[in-house]
Design brief:
This protein is α/β, with parallel strands linked by helices and 249 residues long. 46% of the residues lie in helices and 15% in strands. It is globular, with a radius of gyration of 17 Å. Bound molecules: nicotinamide-adenine-dinucleotide. Nicotinamide-adenine-dinucleotide binds next to helix 1 and helix 6.
């Protein structure tokens, strides 16, 4: 049985990916700093007949990620999903916020690849999938720090894919537009009043030419495919899943 590590699988897209990978027969290792949320996902997997373990891990901390990977016997699939949002242009974005976003969204991906790749090489291969964003490719209004981090997720994908293309490790990323998850609900709650939220939600939906936000399950389908042996000829690719945003740009 393959072991799939999914970071940030306690919520949203990560949870949907973990459920899908478990459904496809993988043992799930859920790495989240919110273990309560991680346990909820693990329970859903066990109830559906799968197996899962939860390891508390802050992906921004080298020690924490090293300790988490030491507990894992094998790593066949790594999904670097844990991420945080940040709103604001370059004037609004302070150095502390930039460091925080860098710590989770950039160093988090680096840390997990750094500790997963040696295990994959020892086992003879593996598949890595990074959660990038349309912000990796196009200018998104008021998302300076977030765009910086997702640009890095994209280029780290290409770098890892290139370095291990002949060593059995595939590395790809997916670039979603807005997906309706607690990440988005939290953004609405933090930044808008209860009265303002329905209008903002409508605007967020209409941003996608298809007329709505994506769902975590839609992202999970693509993610699970790219992590599976069905995608054995695919590496160094960035897949848009964006309801037509980049199509019409
Ligand atoms: N939701 C969207 O519209 C959207 C669009 C494009 C890309 N993405 C990316 O997809 C990924 C998942 O987004 P989501 O909307 O499901 O987020 P979410 O906020 O719903 O879930 C994020 C999960 O990551 C965990 N997490 C956060 N920081 C962590 C850390 N330092 N260490 C370990 N775990 C941590 C949280 O506990 C949570 O379980 C992110 O990388 C995000 O940037 C989301």
């Amino acid at each position: 049985m393959k072991t799939a590590v999914v970071t940030g699988a306690g919520s949203g897209i990560g949870q949907a990916i973990a459920l899908k990978l478990a459904e496809e027969g993988n043992h799930l290792a859920i790495l989240d700093f919110n273990t309560e949320a991680g346990e909820q996902t693990a329970e859903m997997i066990r109830k559906a007949g799968g197996t899962a373990e939860v390891i508390q891990c802050d992906v921004s901390s080298t020690d924490s990620v090293e300790a988490a990977f030491e507990q894992l016997e094998r790593v066949d699939i790594l999904v670097n999903n844990a991420g945080i949002a940040a709103v604001g242009n370059v004037e609004v974005c302070g150095p502390e916020e930039l460091d925080k976003v860098y710590g989770v969204n950039v160093k988090g991906v680096y840390h997990c690849c750094h500790f997963a790749v040696p295990k994959m090489l020892q086992q003879g291969g593996g598949a890595i999938l990074n959660l990038a964003s349309i912000a990796s490719k196009i200018g998104i209004l008021d998302r300076f720090a977030y765009s910086m981090s997702k640009g890095a997720a994209y280029s780290m994908t290409m770098s890892v894919a290139r370095d291990y293309v002949d060593k059995g490790i595939r590395c790809n990323c997916i670039c979603p537009a807005r997906v309706l998850t607690p990440f988005v609900e939290g953004f609405l709650e933090k930044n808008y009043s209860e009265e303002e939220r329905p209008q903002v939600k409508q605007t967020l939906s209409e941003y996608q030419p298809i007329g709505r936000m994506g769902t975590p399950d839609e992202v999970a389908e693509l993610a699970a495919f790219l992590c599976s042996d069905k995608a054995s000829f695919i590496t160094g690719s960035a897949y848009d899943i964006d309801g037509g945003v980049t199509l019409l740009r």
